[in-house]
Sequence to fold (686 residues):
Amino acid sequence: MDYATLLQILDSTLRLGTPLLFACLAGLFSERAGIFDIGLEGKMLMAAMSSGAVAFLTGSVWLGLLAGIMGSMLFAGLHGVASITFRGNQLISGVALNFLASGITVLIAQRLFGQGGRTPPLAGDARFNEITLPFAESLRGVPILGPLYADVISGHALLVYVALLCVPLSWWVLYRTRFGLRLRAVGENPAAVDTAGVSVKGLRFAAVGITGLLCGLAGAYMATALQAGFGREMTAGRGYIALAALIFAKWRPWHALGACMLFGFFQALALRPDVVTAVMQVKIPVPFLDALPYILTVLVLAGFVGKAIPPRAGGEPYVKER
Amino acid sequence: MDRLPKWADVVLVPLVSLLFAAAISAIVISAIGQSPLEALDVMVQGSLMSAYGWGYTLYYTTSFIFTGLAVTIAFHAGMFNIGGEGQAQLGGLGVALACLMIPWPHWSVALLAASLSAAAFGAIWAAVPAYLAAKRGSHIVITTIMFNYIAAALIVYLLVDVLRPAGQMDPATARFAKEMALPTLNQIPILDWFFIKKVPANITLFIALAAAVVVWAILWRTRLGYQIRAFGKSEAAAKYAGISPTKIIMVSMILSGALAGLMSVNNVMGEAGRLLQNSSEGAGFIGIAVALMGRNHPLGVVLAAVLFGFLYQGGAELGLWTSIPIELRIVVQGLVILFTGALDVMVRMLLVWLFSFGKKRQVA
Fold:
């Protein structure tokens, strides 16, 4: 494999890893606060549809982004009401919201545009266009690092850089603020947080809200940057890959970046089976590459590749004064 | 919170949840500019008012009984088996291999072999996550989700690269021999008085009904069923009583996977006559809604499966005759899961409040 091909694959790794990263950090906040969320997929899908539709109707990608976040927040709110207020089963609530999103996005898009559940293609200001970072062209001549900077790091949509910035930001919020300390505590021992006079429900709703926001960014990125518009089921299991990445990362922000980029790399490779065949010297079936994130996650969960210990109070609704 | 009378708990809670789901679906239909009543009429006409419609409704019902029972039996052991979809797809592989490898002389032997093979394949696909949960402490929900995707990838690979006959374009196996086609309801004596046209519902329906009876008998009439239910109620208490967690997790998940796998007899052997990509079409997931709606009781599961059969056939009719997209049925499915599963407490609280209202009046 030559250097140019490697750069191409790394470029698509970053592109494909970005929605995973947003969704993975979204799951991180929720699960750290003790709310399992297998509804990441549904929230992303909802956000993708809302942002694609509004961006097309208004011609503004920013309004689209806002709508995407609102769509995702709506579902996050539902999840919160079901699993925090009414102490419902968080897993079942997540499953329900995924189905709801999968159906309702097609229904709305079909009603609005009548194109088989798609939005019309977005163009111009209705999309996040590629940004060329400063000096990208003038530094291209520098050996090895120049093309890496110009082709891989530069030339992405704004949201890609936002996603990368969200990693240190999440780390800082979780480990260096009072809110983060309490949020992590509520996922480990909600009774202690309650005793300290902090509202468990309030913290958990805040965490679910952040999850909604980040999933909104993930979905909006998919419909307005990665692709030009919304298509039915366009998230294609990314919510679940993000969940896998979260486990792979053992619920830590920097590791989440690594895991998402690794899984993004697998997705990029699956698009280039010729390269895989050339490097490995044997024909690797594409479905195997598709399944690799899931297989790795199963291995991690089984404790064969380090042990993944989830937040202790995850999945249990908190009942005050039992 | 006060307790509801048993009849209210068993009948009223799912019914009220269903009403909520129906009401919101009606709002959704109105919101996309269609008439909910007209939609309901199309659904009822297309799925219940003709023998032909029933032929499709019962075909879906058959699949949903299997997957609903699969979720149910795991649920009683406290396991949330979300991997029915993957197990059903593997079951489909089992059916295809059984039907393609050996030239069975008659459909009855082929049915027996295919059923055993489907159940075995589904069971094995459930046994791996079960083993990992029992021995290595992996979360069963997450592993079964992962196994759904691994199953999908595996089936794609097998259909594209291995099982596809030379010269065929679409990713599917060869067609099964004619002798192996299962009798559909219009080919069964007595029933053919009613079903005069060819319908997809087939003899597997009776296997599904038998499976419901067997699951009921296992859960409430055997020592194993008692152990499964005890384990599901309290793991600690069950352990103290000498029930092995490993055994219960493995057995309940294997039974669950076998039931999910059996579903594929209905669609792969009974309907398509070959294994196609994504043959189970989400029926594994619908099992979750069916089990929740049926309150995890085989009788409830059968009734809920008929309801979902109606919803699926009715939804298809909507897609055909109105401009309401077929995806409406996925929305209803999501709403049913939401209200019967996650917002269960809300519905109960509402009913308790209503009941207390009645009581106060009596006193006064």
